[in-house]
Amino acid sequence: MQSTSTAQQRAHYRESKPLHGVPGNVYILRNSGLKEGLVQIGLSRRSGWAKALELNRDKTNTIPGNYECVFEMRAQDGGGAIEAIFQALQNVRCGRREQDFFEVDVHRAEIIIDQCIRDADLKFQNRFRQEAALREYLEKENADRTTDSQFASTSTPVVREGIFKKAFSWMSGVMN
Predict the structure, then answer these.
(1) For residues 42 and 79, what is the distance between their CA atoms, to the nearest angstrom?
(2) CB 3.0-4.6 Å disulfide test: which of 4, 65, 153, 162 passes with 8?
(3) Distance (Å, rounded) from C-alpha 33 to C-alpha 64?
(4) Are 81 and 123 spatial neighbours (Cβ–Cβ below 8 Å)?
(5) If we measure between CA atoms, which residue out of 117, 87, 120 comes closest to residue 102?
(6) Would the CA dihedral through 59, 64, 66, 68 be positive or negative?
(7) What is the DSSP string of the chain?
(8) What pLDDT, in 10s, does the model give residues 93-102?
């Protein structure tokens, strides 16, 4: 059996997708103890300021300096947005993958984040509409099948909605 090194295991590390479809705040944090232009970008269901306070209070945090939130934006599909952002910024990523540090100008990062969030939210809204329409169609089909099976056992002919149903109802009333 062949063993793999830690570096190879890190290279195969993949984040799970638990936050797809979950709203969240994408934030940019700057740390006074790190070099200028190095920022941390992440996603939280809370605010970016709350994340900065949490990191500042964390005694196990080995990174010196204080964090401050310099940008924050709400996303309907947090998982999709952060995945697109990390993909767009993959060539400026620094340090370990789980720390999410990037060497990028804050203004450029803001523009990329804004565009990625818009795209991810649009995809989410379209997917939501398609799923709702499919669900509505399947519910209607299911209702039609149960109605058809109920009418099949009786002698009354099955008439679907529309002008023919109205005409049939009118004719039934006239003849009775």
Answers:
(1) 10
(2) 4
(3) 5
(4) no
(5) 87
(6) negative
(7) -----HHHHHHT-----TTTT--EEEEEEEETTS-TTEEEEEEESS-HHHHHHHHHH-TT--S-S-EEEEEEEEESSHHHHHHHHHHHTGGGEES-GGG-EEE--HHHHHHHHHHHHHHHHHHHHHHHHHHHHHHHHHHHHHHHHHHHHHHHTSSSPP--SSHHHHHHHHHHHHH-
(8) 887 777 789 9
CA distance 127 to 118: 14
pTM: 0.67
pLDDT digit string (tens) for 123-151? Answer: 998 888 888 888 888 888 887 777 666 65
Alpha-carbon dihedral 102, 106, 111, 114, rounded to 10 degrees: 80
Report the C-alpha gap between 25 and 74 in whole angstroms. 4
Residue type at position 105: D
Rounded to whole angstroms, the Cα distance separating 152 from 66 reads 73
Using CA atoms, how far apart are residues 7 and 25, in angstroms rounded to an integer? 31
